[in-house]
Amino acid sequence: MEQEAWQILIVEDDQRLAQLTREYLEGNGLRVAIEADGACAAARILAEQPDLVILDLMLPGEDGLSICRKVRAGYKGPILMLTARTDDMDQVLGLEMGADDYVCKPVRPRVLLARIRALLRRREGAEGERDEGQPRRLQFGPLAIDSAMREAWLGEQGIELTSAEFDLLWLLAVNAGRILSREEIFNALRGIEYDGQDRSIDVRISRIRPKIGDDPMHPRLIKTVRSKGYLFVAEAAEALPHGDAAPVVRN
To answer: Which residues mediate DNA binding here (predicted)?
Structure first.
């Protein structure tokens, strides 16, 4: 996919901010549409399937969290949430509803563009991985993860993952047996330094565990290693019952 073909939908009721953002992004080769009404946003996202959605939290008609939850199962592209700078809970809730990343207001155009490009290029990473001799598909007993299809299965049952959740699961699985620090994970997935406070990795881990058959209270597949990071345990995944297909988890 060429960058010029990327279609962005901005869901934002602040007309001045939306228009300035649109002009900046279009000046950098992206195609941009704007939706100001939260009540119409979900239907438009599902109907148009843009390459990426920039979604404000505070909207007339329907708030961003509700929209994110409503479209997540039917929209596989990245959702970039706009949040208040000081409201950490908004960020956590956005991630829990299935947002892939967030940018704090006031929005800095260069930061926004960098996040957009990182999210979109991440979806194209499977091709580069194959070129570099990286595995396309990982299999741990009944758990299968395919980087080209960007899908995962537990037995015969497909696992519903957001784009960001898939990237995190793949990163952990391809490094099975090695502890990955939050700094490593953060840099690999978002391309920026970890600030020591961001909770997005922890939130996504907590969402991934039940989806892949791990016990959130006593995890065996994705272990938290105190003061070090996270560890994907291949042997635990391979020991999952083959007939144990987890129910599809809706976002």
So the answer is: 135-234
